Amino acid sequence: MDRAAERDWIMKKLNIGKELLYLTLADVKNTGFLIEDILTLTQSALIAHGKKEYEMPAKIGVHPYEEVFYHAMPAYVPSRNAVGLKWIECYPSNPSRFNLPQTTGLLVINDAESGCPLALMDATWITAMRTPAVTSLAARALHPDAETFGMFGCGVQGIEHCRFIVHTLPNLQKIYVYDIKEEIMDNLVKTVQPEIKAEIICTKDPETVARSCEVMSSATVILQEQLSVVKDEWLSGGQTILPCDLNTFWDPIISRRADKYIVDSAEEHQLFARMGYFPDGLPEIACETGEVLANLSPGREKPDELIVCSNIGMAVCDVVVGKEVFRRALDQGMGRILPL
Ligand SMILES: NC(=O)c1ccc[n+]([C@@H]2O[C@H](COP(=O)([O-])OP(=O)(O)OC[C@H]3O[C@@H](n4cnc5c(N)ncnc54)[C@H](O)[C@@H]3O)[C@@H](O)[C@H]2O)c1
């Protein structure tokens, strides 16, 4: 649908400039997306990013307490006519303190023609979906024949990573998982194992995961302090590491000595480095994840390369998925239309 036709279609259901569609977490979840849909949308956002067909300033943030952040994440992706802003919060102590997720947030989707807001929606589910989609697409581009996958952190992201990764790594036989909380690991197995064929194996130590897996991801906590849980000597050539939590979980030497250090956004990583998240310095960046997906930069060139591909999260993915959530919800009469 071209832009004018899309706007006419929206206007039949929503009076742009006078109304907006409000979508709760339940509304967003119930729009009927399959994992394949999220992968396709996220891939289009990453390729647009790789081709430099986007506008997305690096996240700005506020930090009311040490170790928490709020990020303002605007983006415009012309090819999807998607423009908007995610306002996301990360409070690592939320689960223990308030029984709330550590990541929460809202997403505004705008009309690119008039600028008016079209929708305000919960961003928790979109974040929980597009993040494993990025990891899984990067895994397919960098290590398509992997039979083993390791997941550090078995919370919201850990669960979704195990669900998504089997869609892009068709040869996957075993998934090794590790979390400091055993009950969280058990919950991941209980939730995901009935849905997938690959065997999920709980481990008691991170070393077993690091020594057993070709491809690994981590979604634990993002801290300026380097936890260095995974040691360099546990790793070998040929592995692919896809952290969602910057450098926190991994010995910083791993990214520095890797054959390739790829990032979703060089600008975002440089910003985090200026804020102090890479106390030992930002490793040299080979290229961006989207450039690999768009075939503009090489991914894995040799079987024994150690590759780290750090994806800290990009608003281009949020607005592309969010725009489609808005379209589907409007089409299905979901959510509440509110006056502006
Ligand atoms: N890159 C992105 O786009 C993106 C998007 C969303 C979230 N994140 C980040 O991913 C991380 C996880 O988010 P979530 O929503 O899944 O949180 P969550 O609280 O649901 O899960 C985090 C899990 O990590 C475990 N954990 C914490 N420290 C650990 C350690 N030292 N060793 C092993 N396990 C440990 C916790 O027990 C918990 O189960 C956060 O840091 C968040 O900021 C990144």
Describe, in plain words, how this protein is organized in 3D.
- The chain is an alpha/beta fold and 340 residues long.
- It folds into two domains: 148 residues, ornithine cyclodeaminase, domain 1; 183 residues, Rossmann fold (3-Layer(aba) Sandwich).
- The protein is 37% helix and 22% strand.
- The protein contains twelve helices and 15 strands.
- Strands 9-8-7-10-11-14-12-13 form an eight-stranded parallel β-sheet, sandwiched between helices.
- Helix 7 links the parallel strand 8 and strand 9.
- The longest helix is centred in the middle third of the chain and has 19 residues.
- It is globular and about 60 Å long.
- The chain starts with a helix and ends with a strand.
- The site of nicotinamide-adenine-dinucleotide has 30 residues, from helix 5 and helix 6.
Chain-wise SSE layout:
Elements: H1 3-13, E1 19-23, H2 25-29, H3 35-50, E2 60-62, E3 69-77, E4 82-90, H4 94-98, E5 103-110, E6 117-122, H5 124-142, E7 148-152, H6 156-168, E8 174-178, H7 182-192, E9 199-202, H8 206-212, E10 215-218, E11 240-243, H9 252-257, E12 260-263, H10 266-275, E13 287-288, H11 289-293, E14 307-310, H12 315-331, E15 336-339
Parallel strand pairs: 1-6, 7-8, 7-10, 8-9, 10-11, 11-14, 12-13, 12-14
Antiparallel strand pairs: 1-15, 2-3, 3-4, 4-5, 5-6
The structure holds nicotinamide-adenine-dinucleotide.
Nicotinamide-adenine-dinucleotide is lined by residues 90, 95, 101-103, 127, 131, 152-158, 178-181, 184, 219-222, 227, 229, 244-245, 311-313.
